[in-house]
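Input/output pair, single chain:
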Amino acid sequence: MYYIGYDVGSSSVKGALVECQSGKVMAIAQKPETEMEMISLKPGWAEQDPDHWWQNICSVTHALLSKSRINPAKISGIGIAYQMHGLVVVGSDGVLLRKSIIWCDGRAVEIGNRALNELGADRCSTDLLNAPGNFTASKLRWLKENEPQLYSQIYKIMLPGDYIAYKFSGSLCTTIPGLSEGIFWDFSSNKLATSLLDYYEIDRHLLPDIADTFSMQGTVSEKASMASGLKKGTPILYRAGDQPNNALSLNVLDPGEVATTGGTSGVVYAVTDSLSVKESTRVNNFAHVNHSKEKTRIGKLLCINGTGILYRWLLDNLDFTNYEEMNSAALDVAAGSYGLRIYPFGNGPERMLDNKDIGAKIDTLNFNIHSKSHLCRATLEGIAFSFAYGMDIMRRDGVTPHTIKTGYDNLFRSELFAQMVSTLFGSNIEVYNTTGAVGAARACLLHKGEFDTFKAQLSDQDFIKSYRPEPSSSSLFEFYGQWKEGLNNTLKSFKNGI
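Output:
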């Protein structure tokens, strides 16, 4: 028997088909081959059509079935990972009312800031473990204020993964980790965050019913069966946001374990058993996939919006063929890039910078010295430095990592980048050949509580290599100090309106 997993990102939908007990990957697929359209009607806005996600889910499913030649009747479960913090709204007929306001949309920042000031930072930290910020609840309030006629037609709101599960099954439900990522969950009372809902004047009945993360969450309907190729009645057994799912995919489940990713955005995700938060305005704190009332498991998520998207921007705008060529060019340049410094903050407001949208910056560019190879090296250094800056924040928030794991994709395919991050973090980094889609498929096991089997699947099959901090790395920390000084000067200028 087999499980199928999906990872619904803002760039593409990825899918994986795995054998249940061994976790062996039978097929993988990705749609579309080019990046999905992101609509930006105004600066700082970002929307996508959820039905495009569904169309790509169906295309991925057909591709997986075709590649593997596996009978759909042998697929015994579906796992779903999805881009976090998005807002999807449907009417009473279940039809979409508008495009989704997705994770990197910044229109609700001021609404969240106002809520933080009026509710009080202490109350938000204690109850929500976060500032309301630019999360789903604040985006919903934006709809109420700016599109009141549409808001009055809303029957239910959903996160992106909830919508995909709904398209598969026709059933409307969400999870506690999902509610927490939207800032709809009160950890002090272990229930819906009624204080924030009341403050935003949001009817709590707009939220779907709650299902367990690892559970039967619906089954494939006849309509979805015809569209996707899966057998009617195939159960949905798991769903989670992409970053908690990436952590799960790497067996990051217990305190002291940390997952990193370097995709379109960069993420450091650490698991803790503490509800204490010191950096709640800059570090997100959500219920991890294995959080329960009896066993506290909080995922501390630090996101850097502008990482892989910057490297992609270089690829699109310089005369390079692929990322491997860029990584090779970066190796031809000495550490420090001859004084060239790059700040990768050009993808909207950065939460770790207190939601400031300072833009990307190329500093001390010298036309007589620097080439496109220097730009590649300085970009990898600037992204690695932004990871280190984020880890400095997380250490102040009580994170003491003993295990750091990452998937072998995107930026971590660059040995230079991975080695720099290991050295700057002062920790070993273990690299595994797995993906969010593979993890979502394997996670279907967990509705039966088979954690030991799940953990063995990663360690037995997917380990690639590890990186250790370089002992002689004073120059790297010196360059990091210079980069950080430049960032602090930029933040001061931004604050002063310069």
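The first helix runs from residue 50 to 68. The two ends are 61 Å apart (CA to CA).
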